[in-house]
Amino acid sequence: MQSALAVLLALLGVAGMTVVYLQLAVDTEFFFSSDALYLPTLYDNVIEQGGRLKRWYLTPAPYFFPDWPLYFGLRWLAGTTFHAMAALMAVQALALWGLAALLARRAMAWTPALAGATLATVAVCAAAAGGAFPYAYVMLGSYHFGTFLLVLAGLLMLLPLLAERPVTRGAQAGLALLVAVTVLSDRLYGLQFVLPSLGLLVLMRARVPHWRRLCAALLAGCVAGVLLYKFKLLVPNSVSMPWKLAPARLGVNLGDLLAMFDTLRAQCAPLAWYCALYYALLLTLAPGTLLNRGRWRLAGLEAAWLGMFSLCGTAGLLLVMAISSAPATTRYLIPAALLPLVLGPLLLAAQWPRRAAAHGYLPLTLAALLALWPLAGKVAASGPLRQAYYPETVACVDRVLALYSLQHGYGGYWDAGWLAMHSRQRPTVAPVKADLAPLKWITTLDNFRDNYDFALVAADAADGERPQPSLVTARSGAPQAAVTCGPLQVLAYPSGGLRLQGGAP
Q1: What Å distances lie between residue 46 and 38, 54, 431, CA to CA?
Q2: Predicted confidence band of residue 362 (pLDDT cuts 50, 70, 90)
Q3: Is the bond into 166 cis (omega within 30 degrees of 0)?
Q4: Cα(289)–Cα(75) distance, rounded to whole angstroms?
Q5: Nearest one of 309, 306, 312 to 351, comparing CA atoms
Q6: What is the 3-state secondary structure (H, E, C) of 160-208?
Q7: Alpha-carbon torsion angle 26, 256, 374, 139, nearest 10
Q8: CA–CA separation, 137 vs 27, rounded Å?
Q9: For the segment 274-293, what is each residue's pLDDT rounded down to a tens digit?
Q10: CA 137, CA 129: separation in Å to the nearest integer?
Q11: What is the reported pLDDT for 296?
Q12: CB of 418 within 8 A of CB of 462?
């Protein structure tokens, strides 16, 4: 009965988050932007239109696994992009719950383990539905959340091997394969899982009999994943973010990281302060845990590993973000924000197993109920379910396309993918830079051609991100029509003749 209640609460949390999306009580610009539509656009081109993967410029993290099979399968089942995205967030949240329960089960009985996993899942779903980052990424594919699920899977695979005598070749190969596939999909896995694990294997080598063999498996998998990406076997047209070490940006980046914490504290103060307390306690326990002596330590091997893994992984992420030339972003901090929720009950139970076994279920379940309450209120206040996302700006552009029989156009990156996926006229839209040069970023070469029949430009002359109409008309002459649709202006050239700078790529 108690386990059934934990399962029910988890399902209610996942359902509540999904319903909030179906009510469109979310930030639609975030959920339906060109970035967020990476997987839907890829599916639409490769599966439905017969496009070729070798013509694609994928994201710097291609997200082959688990994101591709999850989304592609759910898109086939759901039939529409709108409903496939709802199914994807539900599956990801349920995967979080299942993996958290399996981890917790290593330190406690099934009933409190399910309750702990339920608390973590409901808290994440409630925060996500409220728009708190990085928790909101559970609702989207291709934003590193699938990679975090494989961090949990990696921990589940690695933990039994720490004390195993000996580590079998099959276990080594399985660990290396998981790392290789995930690093190929998202090289951030190297920073979030491989490096913390390698560091801990060295620091805790006295307690891990075959630490060298585990290090070899992790390194082999990581190198294989990087080489598979570099050799372009699955990524024919690789792209990368402009990233390098920039210690001079330390002050700016630290300010950005503190601003992220302040934002989370304003949106969801209990979670923000819980995470801060979690890491403060781990810092206190770190010396005794790593030296394996003293009263202030995590005594069990698995508890010590998990606690120090989350501490080292978060410290590494923060350090890299602090001295990176790239702007700090919340999506890299998914493990830092979610591991305290997943591992907190487990570490507590590992320290006080009898107390946790006897009394752990009730407070965890009550906390899950408290976390579920604001989510239920949001669902009740957010109106009816929707069947599609079709904003007025897209409807306006569709009327122009239909009126002048326009099919092939170009526009700024944030407009091109967004319009192509939501338009009911199904045009092809090539992404371009502000100077009308082709932008080969998360797109297929199929979108580019020698000439086009419409352009999406800025309706406001002060808009510096979109192409300006004056540049288009200076190069291609006056359009037959120019119609303003929200922030966009559609320039119609029914006979074609629009060209990009330098022609088709």
Answers
A1: 12, 10, 18
A2: confident
A3: yes
A4: 46
A5: 306
A6: HHHCCCCCCHHHHHHHHHHHHHHHHHCCHHHHHHHHHHHHHHHHCHHHC
A7: 40
A8: 12
A9: 999 999 999 999 999 999 88
A10: 10
A11: 86
A12: no
Question: Encoding tokens for residue 81?
Answer: 């992009």
- Count of CB atoms situated within 10 Å of the CB of 60: 16
Higher pLDDT, 465 or 69: 69
Torsion, Cα 352 353 355 358, to 10 degrees, reads 170
- For residues 81-97, b (16+ Cβ closer than 10 Å) or e, as one string? bbbbbbbbbbbbbebbb
Q: Give the Cβ contact number of residue 358 at 10 Å.
A: 12
Supply the pLDDT for residue 287: 93
> Do the Cβ atoms of 433 and 464 come closer than 8 Å?
no
Q: How far is CA 58 from CA 42, 63, 276, 428, 470, in A?
A: 9, 9, 36, 17, 31
DSSP 88: H
Distance, in Å, from the CA atom of 317 to the CA atom of 332, rounded to the nearest integer, reads: 8
Tell me what pLDDT residue 146 has: 96
Q: What is the pLDDT of residues 248-276, one digit of tens each?
A: 888 888 999 999 999 999 999 999 999 99
pLDDT of residue 360: 63
Q: At what angle do helices 301-322 and 195-203 cross, to 10 degrees?
A: 130
DSSP assignment of 418-473: HHHHH-SS--EEEEE-TTS-B--SSEEGGG--S-BSEEEEESSTT--SSPPHHHHH
Span 77-89, mean pLDDT? 96
pLDDT digits (tens, 9 = 90+) for 208-233: 989 999 999 999 999 999 988 887 66
Q: What values do phi and psi take at 40, rounded to 5?
A: -60, -40
The mean of the pLDDT values for the chain is 90
Asked whether the beta carbons of 23 and 385 are under 8 A apart, the reply is yes
Q: Are 376 and 16 in contact (CB under 8 A)?
A: yes
Closest CA to 204 of 309, 282, 112, 96: 309
Classify strands 443-444 and 428-432 as parallel, antiparallel or unpaired: unpaired
- Which two structure tokens, joined as six digits, stand for 151? 């961090």
359: confidence class by pLDDT, cuts 50, 70, 90:
low
Q: What Å distances lie between residue 68 and 34, 62, 152, 186, 445, CA to CA?
A: 17, 9, 19, 12, 20
Whether 418 contacts 456, CB under 8 Å: no
* Calpha distance 452→491 (Å, rounded): 11
- Name the packing angle between helices 145-162 and 169-185 (round to 10°): 160
List, in order, residues 6 or more apart from 397 with CB less than 8 Å away: 419, 423, 456, 485, 488, 490
DSSP reduced 3-state for 303: helix
In this predicted structure, the answer to whether residue 109 has a pLDDT above a threshold of 90 is no
